[in-house]
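As the next step, I selected for study a record pairing a protein sequence with its C-alpha coordinates, which the following lines show:
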Amino acid sequence: MLIVSAGMPRSASTWLFNVLRLIFEDRGMGFESGWFYNFREIDLSKNLLIKIHDYNEFLAKRASFIFYSYRDVRDAILSSKRKFNTDLNLQEVERLINEDKKWRKVSPHLVRYEDVISNPVEEITKIVAKLGMDCDPDKIRCLIQGIHPSAEKPGTYNQTTLYHFHHITKGGKGHWKEELDSTLQREITNCFGDWLVENNYEIE
Protein backbone atom coordinates (compact mmCIF):
# COMPACT_ATOMS: atom_id res chain seq x y z
CA MET A 1 0.00 0.00 0.00
CA LEU A 2 1.27 3.45 -0.92
CA ILE A 3 0.30 6.43 1.23
CA VAL A 4 1.33 9.88 0.02
CA SER A 5 1.69 12.69 2.55
CA ALA A 6 1.79 15.76 0.33
CA GLY A 7 1.69 19.39 1.32
CA MET A 8 2.38 22.99 0.52
CA PRO A 9 5.73 23.85 2.12
CA ARG A 10 5.39 25.21 5.68
CA SER A 11 1.77 24.03 5.99
CA ALA A 12 2.17 21.45 8.77
CA SER A 13 3.11 18.88 6.15
CA THR A 14 5.68 17.28 8.49
CA TRP A 15 3.06 17.17 11.24
CA LEU A 16 0.73 15.37 8.81
CA PHE A 17 3.48 12.91 7.85
CA ASN A 18 4.11 12.07 11.50
CA VAL A 19 0.44 11.68 12.31
CA LEU A 20 0.17 9.11 9.54
CA ARG A 21 3.43 7.41 10.59
CA LEU A 22 2.33 7.15 14.22
CA ILE A 23 -1.12 5.84 13.31
CA PHE A 24 0.47 3.00 11.35
CA GLU A 25 2.94 2.30 14.15
CA ASP A 26 0.11 2.24 16.68
CA ARG A 27 -1.74 -0.33 14.59
CA GLY A 28 1.40 -2.47 14.25
CA MET A 29 1.60 -1.95 10.50
CA GLY A 30 5.06 -2.12 9.02
CA PHE A 31 5.72 0.87 6.77
CA GLU A 32 8.84 2.22 5.12
CA SER A 33 8.59 5.98 5.42
CA GLY A 34 10.53 9.07 4.41
CA TRP A 35 11.10 11.78 1.87
CA PHE A 36 10.31 10.87 -1.73
CA TYR A 37 13.80 11.93 -2.78
CA ASN A 38 15.41 9.45 -0.38
CA PHE A 39 13.76 6.43 -2.01
CA ARG A 40 16.02 4.86 -4.60
CA GLU A 41 13.04 2.97 -5.97
CA ILE A 42 9.34 2.80 -5.27
CA ASP A 43 8.56 -0.84 -4.52
CA LEU A 44 4.78 -1.05 -4.59
CA SER A 45 4.84 -4.54 -3.10
CA LYS A 46 5.74 -2.89 0.23
CA ASN A 47 3.82 -0.60 2.56
CA LEU A 48 5.19 2.88 1.88
CA LEU A 49 4.54 6.29 3.44
CA ILE A 50 6.11 9.02 1.34
CA LYS A 51 6.32 12.73 2.08
CA ILE A 52 6.53 15.17 -0.82
CA HIS A 53 5.81 18.80 -1.68
CA ASP A 54 5.84 19.12 -5.47
CA TYR A 55 3.20 17.26 -7.45
CA ASN A 56 4.31 13.88 -8.75
CA GLU A 57 2.14 12.07 -11.27
CA PHE A 58 3.79 8.69 -10.71
CA LEU A 59 2.82 8.73 -7.03
CA ALA A 60 -0.57 10.29 -7.67
CA LYS A 61 -1.61 7.48 -10.00
CA ARG A 62 -0.45 4.68 -7.70
CA ALA A 63 -1.32 5.86 -4.20
CA SER A 64 -3.98 4.17 -2.09
CA PHE A 65 -4.42 7.39 -0.11
CA ILE A 66 -3.20 10.92 -0.76
CA PHE A 67 -3.37 13.46 2.07
CA TYR A 68 -2.61 17.09 1.23
CA SER A 69 -1.96 19.96 3.66
CA TYR A 70 -2.29 23.61 2.75
CA ARG A 71 -2.12 27.06 4.32
CA ASP A 72 -2.78 30.70 3.55
CA VAL A 73 -0.16 31.08 0.85
CA ARG A 74 0.88 34.50 2.18
CA ASP A 75 1.83 33.01 5.55
CA ALA A 76 3.46 30.05 3.78
CA ILE A 77 5.91 32.22 1.85
CA LEU A 78 6.71 34.23 4.98
CA SER A 79 7.45 31.05 6.91
CA SER A 80 9.73 29.85 4.09
CA LYS A 81 11.48 33.21 4.15
CA ARG A 82 12.15 32.88 7.90
CA LYS A 83 13.33 29.29 7.60
CA PHE A 84 15.13 29.15 4.26
CA ASN A 85 15.59 32.82 3.34
CA THR A 86 13.61 32.28 0.13
CA ASP A 87 12.46 35.18 -2.00
CA LEU A 88 9.12 36.85 -1.40
CA ASN A 89 7.61 37.36 -4.83
CA LEU A 90 4.52 36.76 -6.90
CA GLN A 91 6.22 34.00 -8.91
CA GLU A 92 6.63 31.84 -5.81
CA VAL A 93 3.00 32.38 -4.85
CA GLU A 94 1.94 31.34 -8.36
CA ARG A 95 4.11 28.22 -8.16
CA LEU A 96 2.65 27.16 -4.82
CA ILE A 97 -0.92 27.68 -5.98
CA ASN A 98 -0.30 25.75 -9.20
CA GLU A 99 1.08 22.84 -7.17
CA ASP A 100 -1.88 23.16 -4.80
CA LYS A 101 -4.36 22.84 -7.64
CA LYS A 102 -2.64 19.73 -8.99
CA TRP A 103 -2.71 17.95 -5.64
CA ARG A 104 -6.33 18.86 -4.99
CA LYS A 105 -7.39 17.15 -8.21
CA VAL A 106 -6.15 13.81 -6.87
CA SER A 107 -6.53 14.20 -3.10
CA PRO A 108 -9.95 14.23 -1.42
CA HIS A 109 -8.20 14.28 1.96
CA LEU A 110 -7.32 17.90 2.71
CA VAL A 111 -5.68 19.14 5.92
CA ARG A 112 -5.85 22.87 6.62
CA TYR A 113 -2.95 24.32 8.61
CA GLU A 114 -5.14 26.77 10.48
CA ASP A 115 -7.37 23.91 11.67
CA VAL A 116 -4.35 21.92 12.80
CA ILE A 117 -3.12 24.69 15.09
CA SER A 118 -6.60 25.43 16.47
CA ASN A 119 -7.77 21.86 17.06
CA PRO A 120 -5.18 19.16 16.32
CA VAL A 121 -7.19 16.34 17.91
CA GLU A 122 -10.14 17.02 15.62
CA GLU A 123 -7.86 16.92 12.58
CA ILE A 124 -6.25 13.68 13.75
CA THR A 125 -9.73 12.23 14.26
CA LYS A 126 -10.62 13.09 10.66
CA ILE A 127 -7.42 11.47 9.37
CA VAL A 128 -8.05 8.29 11.36
CA ALA A 129 -11.61 8.15 10.00
CA LYS A 130 -10.44 8.60 6.42
CA LEU A 131 -8.02 5.71 6.84
CA GLY A 132 -10.80 3.59 8.36
CA MET A 133 -8.65 2.62 11.32
CA ASP A 134 -9.37 2.07 15.00
CA CYS A 135 -6.96 4.41 16.72
CA ASP A 136 -7.09 6.85 19.66
CA PRO A 137 -6.55 10.42 18.35
CA ASP A 138 -5.57 11.69 21.82
CA LYS A 139 -2.79 9.10 21.98
CA ILE A 140 -1.46 10.23 18.60
CA ARG A 141 -1.59 13.87 19.72
CA CYS A 142 0.46 13.02 22.82
CA LEU A 143 3.03 11.18 20.72
CA ILE A 144 3.26 14.14 18.33
CA GLN A 145 3.78 16.52 21.23
CA GLY A 146 6.67 14.34 22.39
CA ILE A 147 8.62 15.12 19.21
CA HIS A 148 11.06 17.99 19.72
CA PRO A 149 12.42 19.44 16.44
CA SER A 150 14.72 21.76 18.41
CA ALA A 151 16.73 18.72 19.48
CA GLU A 152 18.19 18.40 16.00
CA LYS A 153 21.60 19.87 15.20
CA PRO A 154 21.92 22.78 12.72
CA GLY A 155 21.93 21.58 9.13
CA THR A 156 20.46 18.16 9.99
CA TYR A 157 17.08 16.50 10.16
CA ASN A 158 15.72 13.44 11.91
CA GLN A 159 15.55 10.49 9.51
CA THR A 160 12.41 9.16 11.20
CA THR A 161 10.32 12.26 11.91
CA LEU A 162 11.78 14.41 9.09
CA TYR A 163 11.82 17.38 11.45
CA HIS A 164 14.95 19.47 11.09
CA PHE A 165 16.72 22.04 13.21
CA HIS A 166 14.60 25.13 13.90
CA HIS A 167 11.78 23.49 11.93
CA ILE A 168 9.04 25.53 13.58
CA THR A 169 9.79 29.25 13.29
CA LYS A 170 6.88 31.45 14.33
CA GLY A 171 3.73 29.43 13.75
CA GLY A 172 0.29 30.94 13.94
CA LYS A 173 -1.63 32.72 11.22
CA GLY A 174 -2.16 36.16 9.75
CA HIS A 175 1.47 37.31 10.03
CA TRP A 176 1.27 38.45 6.42
CA LYS A 177 -0.78 41.49 7.51
CA GLU A 178 2.20 43.01 9.34
CA GLU A 179 5.20 41.38 7.68
CA LEU A 180 4.37 41.17 3.98
CA ASP A 181 5.08 44.17 1.79
CA SER A 182 1.83 46.01 1.03
CA THR A 183 2.55 46.06 -2.70
CA LEU A 184 3.00 42.29 -2.78
CA GLN A 185 -0.16 41.90 -0.71
CA ARG A 186 -2.14 43.79 -3.37
CA GLU A 187 -0.54 41.81 -6.18
CA ILE A 188 -1.43 38.51 -4.54
CA THR A 189 -5.02 39.66 -3.98
CA ASN A 190 -5.34 40.87 -7.57
CA CYS A 191 -3.88 37.72 -9.12
CA PHE A 192 -5.00 35.02 -6.69
CA GLY A 193 -7.93 36.51 -4.81
CA ASP A 194 -10.19 33.75 -6.10
CA TRP A 195 -7.99 31.10 -4.45
CA LEU A 196 -7.96 33.02 -1.18
CA VAL A 197 -11.74 33.45 -1.17
CA GLU A 198 -12.38 29.82 -2.14
CA ASN A 199 -10.31 28.73 0.84
CA ASN A 200 -11.92 31.21 3.23
CA TYR A 201 -8.86 33.39 3.68
CA GLU A 202 -9.18 37.07 4.43
CA ILE A 203 -8.38 39.60 1.73
CA GLU A 204 -7.69 43.28 2.25
